[in-house]
Amino acid sequence: MSENSQFDLSIAHTAVSSLLGDESLSVSRHVDFTGGDVCFDSPFYSGEAASAVIAAKGVIAAEINHLQGKQVIDQLGVDTRLAEASLVSFALQDFADDQKAPDKRPNPEDRTPASGFFKCKDGRLIYLHSSFPNYAQHSDAMLKLLSAAPNHKAIAEAISKIPAQDLEDKIAAAGLCGAMLRNHDEWDQSIAGQALSATPVIEVIKMTDTDPQQSSTLSAQSVLAGLKVLDLTRVLAGPTCAKSLSSFGAEVLHIRGKDLPYVESFVTDTGIGKRSAYLNLKAEKDRDVLQSLVKQSDVFSQGYQSAVMEKFGFSVEDVMVMNPDSIYVSINCYGHEGEWRTRPGWEQLAQVATGMAVQQGDYLSDGKGFSKPVLQPSALNDYVTGYLAALGVMLAKRQQLLFGGGYCVRVSLCRTAMWVRALGIRDYSVHSRVPDSAELCSFYQSFETDWGRLSALRPALSLAGKPLLWTGPPVPLGSHSASF
Disulfide engineering: 167 pairs with which of 162, 241, 429, 469, CB 3.0-4.6 Å? Predict the structure, then answer.
């Protein structure tokens, strides 16, 4: 990489070390980071963060291969521009047939009038998230809470009469999606911020004691070939975790309810390398099917609000009883302890709550002072959290090979935001170079899909001199039976 590159190698190596420990630093320095300029105008080291997590997965993949007595992996490569571009991979999908292509993701403010930033009675701002597009139930509930008509003017007037903290508390109590705008210091001093500051960016918690796994549990075809993953997640971090595992050869079965809302372009983005089946966990017969799948699988990944899986009998404790060797992944927005753990959250809310939106606004004003909040130009927390969750699974897999046991892996969008911020703030003189069409073509892997021919970003990691590739195309939801 050129010395004049805007990508900061020292930050990337520091980030790898923060994830894997100082003993990994000598290994990570052998990672070949190639690329150059950053892709997005952001004060955060988003490309370095994404590249570091991807590199860390490569380091652990090499260790897993070694423990399995398989191919020695002594070359690790990360294309840093591809890694950063992957933070908007849903927007960079190229469908050959526009008539078959899924709709582009709408701006949140276009979905319902109860979306975006609003000024409260005390002058502070709050951000309302509309949940899924055309999800009338959420929109109606927000309008009822505000006692407002379904138009922007009426909503703004209603919000202007309520202090921001009071409104945030009411939104949380109603199970809706909204967050008061905070700067970094305010977040750090909040109850949730203090709880997360004492939490590792990836929690890998041993849950059971079982014998170390034998090398035969994973085949020799690729690093994670033979690993069976149940993916019970939606938009975007959770599905990215399982998609990432599929790039190492894991067999992924995506499970969801038929009646749940979705964004089709997110399905095509995060569904690569997976099979997809419907199960209704409100029905006993479908819960029985899922229990059977848990006993056959190696990884159970879920991204629903706390207590949802408990209600249906698939808490981490429940799953460990069904399969003591399981790796249970739990992904949420605000962390897994304390009163905020039950709050629904999204990428935008993590940015607003943790101070990212304030910092981005300051950055775009060239450091002359905060003027208005601005969201990141990428889904930084979503995708990086998904990568971190996949790294957590691989760390747990390594532990199983060495010491046995079942493990719980926990990550959250807000903890990811705090980790990224801890890497430092980029010099405001650094500017981006957005990938052009020629560069994007070099990033693509193509598939024939039900939506026509799709060109999608390939993985940014190469092992032993060979780039990883996805194992198969995305499929429409519910295309398969619920079986491995």
Answer: 162
Tokens describing residue 244: 């990432």
How far apart (Å, rounded) are the C-alpha atoms in residues 272 and 255? 14
Comparing CA positions, the residue from 272, 281, 205 lying closest to residue 241 is 272
* Residues 6 or more apart whose Cβ sits within 8 Å of residue 222: 248, 249
Question: Rounded to an integer, what distance in angstroms lies between the CA atom of residue 277 and that of residue 262?
Answer: 14
CA end-to-end span of the chain = 43
Q: Which residue has the tokens 């195309």?
A: 473
- d(C-alpha 455, C-alpha 447), whole Å: 6
**Beta carbons of 444 and 454 less than 8 angstroms apart:** no
Distance CA 165, CA 139 (A): 20
Q: What is the pLDDT of residues 55-65, one digit of tens each?
A: 999 999 999 98
164 has a pLDDT exceeding 80: yes
Task: For the sheet with 466-467, list strands across it.
Answer: 31-34, 76-79, 461-463, 466-467
Cβ neighbours around 191 below 10 Å, total: 10
- Tell the residue number behind the tokens 């420990």, with chain if given: 21
Phi and psi dihedrals of 222, rounded to 5?
-155, 175
Residues forming beta bridges with residue 231, ordered by sequence position = 254, 301
Per the structure block, which two tokens stand in for 474?
A: 């995305």
Phi, psi of 46 (to 5 degrees): -70, -45
Q: How far is CA 175 from CA 138, 145, 170, 398, in A?
A: 9, 11, 9, 37
Residues composing the chain = 484
With cut-offs at 50, 70 and 90, classify the pLDDT of residue 370: low
For residue 410, which of 200, 190, 187, 195 has the smallest C-alpha distance? 200
Kindly report, residue by residue over 236-260, the tens digit of the pLDDT.
Answer: 999 999 999 999 999 999 999 998 8
